[in-house]
Amino acid sequence: MLSDITVVELGTRVATAYCGKLLSDLGASVIRVEPPIGDPLRSREPGYASYLHAGKRCVTAGPGVGVGAALAALGDRVDVIVCDDDEPTLAAVMATREANPGLLVATISDYGLDGPLAGTPANDFTLQSEAGISLLHPTGDRPPVVTGVELAELSGAAAAAVGVVTALLVADAGGAPATPASGTAMADVDVSRFESVVALLQYPWLAAQIEDHNPYPLPQNAVPGLELALDGWVCAVAVTPPQWADFKKMAGVPELDDTRFDTLSGRIRLAAETTELVRRFTTRHTVAELVELGATFRVPVTPVGTPRGLPSLAPYISRGVYVRNAGSTVAPSSPFRYDHDTASPAPLASIGQHNGILPVTGRGARQRGRAQRSHGRGFTAADRPLAGIRVLEIGTFQAGPLVGMNLAALGADVVKIEAVNRPDLIRFTGNQSVDRCWERVGAFIGANLGKRDLTVDFSQPAGLSIVHRLIERSDVVLDNFLPRVLDDRGLSYAGVCALRPDVIMVRMPAWGMTGPWRDRPGFTYSVDATSGLSHLTGYPDGDPLLTGTIVDPLAALHSTFVTLAAIRHRQLTGRGRLIEVPLCDVAVHLTARAVIAASADGLEPTRLGNHSGSAAPQGIYRCADGQWLAVSVSTEAQWAALAQLPGVREWAAAEHFATPAGRLEHRLELDEHLAELCADRDGAAITDELRQLKIPSAVLGVGNDLHEHPQLLARGRVFEADHGVVGRAKYIGSPARLGAAPIATTPRGTPLFGQHNHEILSELNFDDDAITAMVAAGAIGDSPYGLPFNR
After folding, report:
1. Which residues contact 225 (CB under 8 A, 6 or more apart)?
2. Backbone torsions φ then ψ of 23, nearest 5 degrees
3. Considering only 115-124, 183-192, 554-563, 566-575, which range has the smallest mean pLDDT?
4. How far is CA 478 from CA 71, 164, 404, 505, 506, in A?
5. Which helix (H) or strand (E) holds 360?
6. Strands 476-479 and 628-632: what pairing?
7. Alpha-carbon distance 589 to 533, whole Å?
8. Among residues 36, 59, 178, 315, which one has the fewest Cβ atoms lying within 10 Å of its Cβ?
9. C-beta atoms surrounding 514 within 10 Å
10. Is the pTM of this model over 0.85?
11. Quick check: 138 and 545 in contact, CB under 8 A?
């Protein structure tokens, strides 16, 4: 889909490499620039290097001037540069851009290129902690714990990939290079890894703003969730009322019929009591028995995967998700498939293999003519890059709807359909004691910005006829239901193509379009557990832990990326296509590094708590004001700076702390010292002190005040929108800030249930009498299940 594009990848971050991998997976020619000795990852983790870099070309360049020379040698044959924010590299990139004004530049940094925190030392550990991820985990009376994978790196990469294709669409339409009011060149795509992690949260800032909203749950564990079995762990999900009813039938534990447990929020609030009752059932069965019982009762029950065992689990082995890469280690294949296929393993280029070989693919920046466009504002209605594109969203909960929201933000007319008797059930996960409770749920409002809403029941012939009319007028059809829901109604890809031959169909089932789990329900929690993420998160001597609902938004970023690429490809070729992005296929890329390591040495990676194999001290410590502080020391310079602090120098001089190996060996002792240090100081004060010393640190955030975060405000990420019930609220925009529109906006607020029934049906040539008859028959309406509300 991107075979006409040439990309240069510059940097050492995993985020930069994974972004390049995603672009390569869609056919872009990616040229990786490495130092003359090669990427250190090649010798340190050859299997992981092969996973990230296979299929890319490799040229070498020395630091600073050498990078500029390498870029100059490539000339105007390059369309996009993706790079870190290393100052010499960035200077060389911007100098190259000045000579080639049509060149697109995407940067990935910790906090973005501007704002009060730009350049502040950080890493994945502190970014997760500051954003609100660490507090999601239930750790009892122990300190909060970080997620056991590089969330900021991988989510930042996916956001950058989205930004790159968006910038290509803007450029193809004649947009000018990004230039702020000062006239200084800026990145066309400026991705903040901090903002990328924020985008994985389930809208705590909206929960804080909406009157009578349920409190944002912390810890954010599903109940039931990760449960102990006779021979391991399973994840059992009962988010909706029907699932909870089915779970109770399956469990056969009478005490679970207590009305206090009827809502998910009630079960979370009473987690200890509920879990004890749930485990009366689960501990009587093996993992395999529980998985099959779940299938029988249509309750999502999955095994908790481990890095060694993942490649042999049913939804993966049956669909060829894991492949042997060039390093003879096992790694996941592409997170998406199109036209029923996925990217095949490619060889890893040797160091400098393509020195002196100029790219022959790509239109080149020289061929991209651009009209002038003003900058320093958000998109207007007319210049959003997807203006004129119509999307039909047949989605529920978060993964699919978030893709629709992302496309709407870029100007697509997204029509979300719900049925009066089958609404999007995330509407009912909030406080059900208030009027129009279904319109007051932050998780729904946040994931459905910018859309129109139509109620239509496509399980009925009349409703299906309306959906047919919508498909005929739609450029993209998006769904994240079980495959059979659409297929059984003649809305498979073949059926949709019969109505709109050039349609782009994006399908996001939990377990894929094929295989033995094809029609099994699955949620974000299910794939979190099965992917091995839960196994890697938590304390070594504790339980595995779920990490909120992060898989849904991460899958949505990947799906948005490939959908945008498909839209661009159709604009160039007139061809539509089928795209498949299963939740389970995205989630396994979170744990790819651990799976590759396990396949290389045969050992089972496990939970490390807050510790790391490359940083010590690293931990989360309680401060005098009750705040938690995350601190991570990974370099000798950071250790030397920490060792000079009053209260530290007294113990830091001990001989067994003199080397990185010694500090790793004695990290528990370091934890004790830092816990004592933090106990006497306020969190904000010690964070400021540590950051001035260039030591990554952060006070742990909840996320409820992120709409007031100084960095997000300074970067134009916070905007306001109206809602018909909850009123005006503040929202947070995409983590990929576009130079063409650096101020986040939305074309409209979140729709009410059935708000656009008359408008959309009129567009489909139904007259007023026909629409009135549909209302009278209950086929369309403005409340789920016909529930009454104050009008």
Report:
1. 235, 236, 237, 525, 546
2. -65, -40
3. 183-192
4. 39, 21, 8, 6, 5
5. none
6. unpaired
7. 10
8. 36
9. 17
10. yes
11. yes
* pLDDT of amino acid 98: 87
Give residue for tokens 């540069």: 81
Rounded Cα distance between 669 and 663, Å, is 9
Give bridge partners of residue 219 from the DSSP assignment.
none
Contact partners, residue 162, CB within 8 Å, separation at least 6: 406, 557, 560, 561, 564, 734, 736
Residues 156, 735: contact at Cβ < 8 Å? Answer: yes
Return the structure tokens found at 73: 């040698």
DSSP summary character for residue 323: E
738-777: pLDDT as tens digits:
998 999 999 999 999 999 999 999 999 999 999 999 999 9
CA atoms of 650 and 109, how far apart (whole Å): 35
Amino acid identity, position 125 = F
Residues 569 and 579: beta-carbon distance below 8 Å? no
Read off the amino acid at residue 544.
P
Cis peptide before 219 (omega within 30 of 0): yes
**782: which residues sit within 8 A by CB, 6+ positions away?**
455, 752, 753, 754, 755, 757
Q: Give the Cα separation of 755 and 56 in Å (integer).
A: 48
Tokens 């809403």 -> residue:
453
Mean pLDDT, range 698-705, rounded to an integer: 97
Structure tokens at 447: 């994931």
Write out the two tokens for 557: 């970023």
Give me 431's structure tokens. 């406080």
Q: Is 183 left (phi over 0), alpha (psi -120 to 50) or beta?
A: left
Q: DSSP per residue over 208-275, as a string?
A: HHSTTPPPPPSS---SS-EEEETTEEEEE---SHHHHHHHHHHH--GGGG-GGGSSHHHHHHTHHHHH
Q: With contact defined as beta carbons under 8 Å apart, do 608 and 358 qualify?
A: no
Q: Side by side, which strands form the sheet with 232-236?
A: 226-229, 232-236, 301-303
Residue 721: C-alpha distances to residues 710, 735, 749 (Å)? 19, 18, 5
Pick from 729, 335, 707, 337: nearest CA to 557: 335
Q: Residue 719 pLDDT > 70, yes or no?
A: yes
Closest CA to 694 of 654, 636, 747: 636
Side-chain half-sphere CA neighbours of 689 within 13 A: 15
pLDDT at 369 over 50: no
Token duo for residue 337? 């498939």
CB 384 within 8 A of CB 362: no
Average pLDDT, the chain: 93
Nearest to 450 by CA among 512, 386, 399, 360: 386
pLDDT of residue 366: 41
Give the C-alpha separation, 511 to 581, whole Å: 9
Which 3 state secondary structure label does DSSP give 495?
Answer: helix
3-state secondary structure at position 9: strand
Q: Is the pLDDT of residue 728 over 70?
A: yes
